[in-house]
Every structure is written in structure tokens, then in C-alpha cells.
Amino acid sequence: MPLTLHPNITDPDGFYQELLDAHEGKTKADSDALNARLILILANHIGDRAVLRDALEAAK
Amino acid sequence: MVAARYQTAVTLYPYQKVADQAASTPARHPVVIIGGGPVGLALALDLGQRGTPALVLDDHEGPGLGSKAICFAKRTLDIATRLGAGAAMVEKGVVWSLGKVFHGDGKVFEFDLLPEDGHRNPAFINLQQPYFETFLFDAIRRAQAGGAPIEVRGGNRVTDVRPAEDQVGLTVDTPDGPYAVEADWVIACDGARSPTRDMLGLSFDGRVFEDSFLIADVKMQAPFPTERWFWFDPPFKGAGQSALLHKQPDDIWRIDFQLGWDIDREEELKPQRICARVDEMLSAQTGEVPEYALEWTSIYTFQCRRMQAFRHGRVLFAGDSAHQVSPFGARGANSGVQDAENLAWKLDLMCNGLAEDALLDTYAEEREYAADENILNSTRSTDFMTPKSEISQVFRNAVLELAARAPFARPLVNSGRLSVPCVYDGLTLFGEDHLDGPPATRPGTPAVDCKLGQTFLLERLHPGFTLLAIDADTPEQIEAGGLLARRLELSAQTNPLLAERYLGNAPSAVYLIRPDQHIVARWPTFDHEAVKRASHIAIGKAAPCP
Ligand SMILES: Cc1cc2nc3c(=O)[nH]c(=O)nc-3n(C[C@H](O)[C@H](O)[C@H](O)COP(=O)(O)OP(=O)(O)OC[C@H]3O[C@@H](n4cnc5c(N)ncnc54)[C@H](O)[C@@H]3O)c2cc1C
């Protein structure tokens, strides 16, 4: 499945809030670490190298 | 005079005066190998066993003392087995499979490298380099006794190399003064500081890692587990960014501390300072310090670099002289021995007039490709172990934290990717893949071992080219373009492992395999024209017109 850049998350506002809540009260260093873990977990879930490469490109 | 540059561990090839030294015109040798390290010795043995005379010139009389290579990988052991030195290595070496990875105070995970079925040799062994060289030399002695034309001259230092159109002139210094020889081919196996490279004015470019490693070999009799322990950010005082503990034969343990770039070498090498670190490391798991003694300590810095071209006319470079890697993954000696095996059969064909000059270019093509792969792997390991930026540190630590609780992150942890042989996908000498077979035995791969009753596939392959016929009809041998391939006939009907590794879903298969055991091409059944075509390709000749 190719990388989708179209809306794909149900309840986008709810997700966004959960993302911010996860960082609530953290220092910059802890937040950076959390983000890094999150990226790794999501990347593994996707797995497909082509999709990951497209995502890296799209994020630049 | 030949002054020693280092202490030797054992005397193997003491200096002896030879007739060449008194010759009025320089004696001519087909192949002169400069340097009798692991690579030069393996090359000489391989050539000599094929019947091509090999003269090794080394400026010492045996392997150097002290901590160098300890980890020898399966492909190296397979090569050594073919050369008659493998069994002694495996018998003396330490085979291990359990490892633990730590991050700071905590254990991240443990692994068990369960061996795969049906291979003669283990994935790797730990063995001190002087033993490795001694076992190769023992095999050379046995081969010499059987008539193999190999000569190793210790105390012979090459001081000048003069390449010409039709030969290479060499000046050799000895305790009895200098003499000259000539060679058809010169193979520089003279190590990372290669004087030959300097004499030819060739460069050696790459990346220096700004890091120092303290290496301590420690002798201890304590019943300590035979496991590989690796720490990222070790908790011991001043232990640097990583630390490694690994067992060798003779109750010796290799300990590495990654100390960083800005260090006071003299201070760090003080025994009491080293012992303080070692005490903390050894007691980290058991709570007590076992009795031990320091055997050998030194500080190294590492680089990843290679020569732009491994072939310069009649002078070819192999081993550390051609490429250097950081030691994570044990890719130094292991890849150098593969250089030697790649070059041996090609030189042998050349010296016997059976191949054209272009065949030697493919040595460079294949081994430069392999060197790039090794450099890539060891650079990646180094980047994981020594993050180069703040964000790479953040990701590195995230991987380590996750690895403790989620299996997916463990393959991302990189404390060295152990040397595996290079697959020559798509390079000049490899032919067609007409079998819908397993990827692990596609053209370009080194043949995978497999148990065959009481023997193993790799040792059944012929010294020259092999036409492997599995449940297929082929002639006993086939000659094409100067290449002779002899048949090895097998059946997979009662050998599911052979079927899994060489047939996949196909009912039969025919493989053309090189003398270095790499697979050239494969087909479902014997097709004379196709095999002839592949045979030409395999030795760098133009295929005949159909
Ligand atoms: C700390 C450390 C750990 C390592 N661990 C591993 C490991 O676990 N696994 C692994 O595979 N590799 C490892 N290596 C790398 C390995 O030691 C080298 O890759 C290997 O020694 C290279 O072999 P070589 O034959 O190319 O060169 P060398 O072993 O350097 O041999 C070169 C020879 O040439 C001789 N010579 C030099 N100049 C002349 C001259 N002018 N005339 C005549 N002779 C000459 C030298 O005396 C020497 O005998 C390690 C290295 C270090 C430093």
C-alpha cells in the first residue's frame, strides 16, 4: 500500500489531543526521547521500506 | 639488517640463507607474496595446493604478539577447512552462542545464536590471531611435505618494488644483506601500513574514527560464563561509551573499553587504572571480583578506508593493505582471507595460461565491492556505538530503551554485524539464474554447506570448477573456454535439507560452482550450451557465438 497523505485518522482532534497529552509536563529531553520511541514503533508497524522512504521524503 | 618492528608470539619461519641471495642474475618467481600474515599465508597455501609456486617474503619470523583478531567467521573456517587448517582452528577455538546487551545499569536483552543445522563449521569461533596463523603455517608445512611448491622466507624485508611491463623487480633486505628477485605477479599482503602501497605512491583514503579503544586481554580461571557481554554507556567509572567482554581459548578474556578521542594514553595504560575498570566490569553481574591477571594491554584507534583500486598491473593488494575497517563485526582478517581465496584460483589459471589478463581485473571488481560492503557495515556499527549528533544519540537511546521491552527494536541494536561473505550479485563473472530456486544459493552467493551422510557438501566440491547435479543428468565433466568443470552428483530425495537449500520447489537442479565455492549460474536441468556460456563468463572470456 503506498503512503497516504490523505486524511486517514478517525477523530483527528481526539488523536491530536492524545499526542499532546503524552508530552504534557515533560522536559525537552524527555519529549525528544518519547518522539524517537514513537517514530520507531510506528516505523516498525509500517514495516514496508518503500512507504517509510516516502514518509521520510514527505516529512522533509 | 632487518630490525624487528614488533615482538613475535612464536617463531614459525626463521631466517635461512637461500640460493637466490647468491644468484648473479635475479631469480624469477611466478608469484611473490609480500607479508606472511593471515592473508599472505592463506594465499600461499591455496596457490601451492593448486600447484602454482608461491614465495612468501616476511620481515619477521612469525606472527606478532599481542591482541589482534579473535573472532573468525564461518566462511573463513570453511576456507581454512578446504585448505586443511580448519579442524585445528575449531578444536582450539571457543564456540559461544549466548550474549547479553546492557545499557547503563540495566540489561537490555539476551540472545542465543542457535546454530543452524547441517553445517560443518560454527557461525564463528574466538581464537587468538597467532594461533590462526600458526595453524595455517602448519598446513603449509604439511602441503610442502606433500610436494606443494610453497616457500616462506622469514627475516626477508621488501625494500623496493619496481613494476615493469613484463615482470616486477624486488629488492629484499636480509640479515646477510640485500638481494634481488623478479616476479610475474606480486601480491602485497603487507598489512594496513603497507610499505608496497607507499613505494608505489598509492593513497589509502577513508574515514578515521575519532575514538580510542583500550584493549585488555585478561587471564582468569574463575568459572565465568562463556558469554559475550556488551555495554552501551557502561556504568563503571570512566569506562567510556561502550565496553565488551568476550572469551578466548586458554582462559583468556578480551575486554574492550571505548575511551573516546581526547585521552591520556600513558595514564590510561597504567595497570592500576585498567584493573579498576576491569574489577567493576567483572563484578557487575556477580557482585564479586574474580581472580585475574592482565596478559596484554594496548590502545588502538580505528579507521575505515580502502585503496581506490586493488590491482595495479602486476601488483595486486589483498587484506589490510587494500582495506581497513573498524573491528566491530570482525571484518578485517575475515575479509582478507576471502580476498586471498578469490585471488588464488584466478592467479593459478593465469599462471597456467588458462585465462586472460582481464580475469585479474575481476579480483579487484569483486573484492572492492566486498570492501565497500564491509566498510558500510562497520561504519554503521560505529555510528550506532558513537552517535555523532544529539539527535542520533536520542534515537540510539530510544532503540536501547525499546529493545528492553519490545522485540522489534532488538535487530536495530548494533554492536557489530558479524562478518558474512559478500554476495557478488550481478558482477561480471556471474551468469544466469534459470532455476526458480532458493535465494540463498542464487548466482553470486557462496555455496551453502549441507550435511551429506558422513560428509559435508562444501568438502565434496572439487578444487577446480564443480558441476553440481542434483537429481539431474549431466556429463561427468565439461570443458569450455579452457575451464574444466567436474561433476558432483547428488540426490535430494532422502535429504530434505539439500532440497531446501538447493532446489526449493524445483525437482532437479544443475549448478556451476567456482573454485572459491561461489555459485556462477544455475538451471533446472543440464543444458550444454548454457553451461558452456556460463563457463566462458566465469573466467572472464567472451561467450562463444551460438
Ligand atoms: C585490536 C584488533 C582486533 C581485531 N579483531 C579482529 C577480529 O576479531 N576478526 C578479524 O577478522 N579481524 C580482526 N582484526 C583485524 C586483523 O588483525 C587484520 O585484518 C589482519 O591482521 C590483516 O591481515 P593481513 O595478512 O592483511 O596483514 P597483517 O596481519 O598486518 O600482516 C602483514 C605482514 O606483512 C609483513 N610485512 C610488512 N611489511 C613488510 C615488508 N616490507 N616486507 C616483508 N614483510 C612485510 C608484516 O610483518 C606482517 O607479518 C583486529 C585488529 C585489531 C588491531
UniProtKB/TrEMBL annotation, chain A:
List, alphabetically, the InterPro entries matched.
DUF2783
Name of this chain's protein:
DUF2783 domain-containing protein
Automatic annotation (TrEMBL), chain B:
Query: What superkingdom heads the lineage?
Result: Bacteria
- Domain FAD-binding, by residue range, is 30-374
Record InterPro entries: FAD-bd, FAD/NAD-bd_sf, RIFMO-like
Q: Which Gene3D superfamilies match?
A: 3.30.70.2450, 3.40.30.120, FAD/NAD(P)-binding domain
State its cofactor: FAD
Give the keywords, sorted.
FAD, Flavoprotein
* Molecular function GO terms recorded: FAD binding; oxidoreductase activity, acting on paired donors, with incorporation or reduction of molecular oxygen, NAD(P)H as one donor, and incorporation of one atom of oxygen
Entries under PANTHER family matching the protein: BINDING MONOOXYGENASE, PUTATIVE (JCVI)-RELATED, TRK SYSTEM POTASSIUM UPTAKE PROTEIN
What's the name of the protein? Answer: Oxidoreductase
User: Per the UniProt entry, what species is this protein from, by scientific name?
Assistant: Roseobacter cerasinus
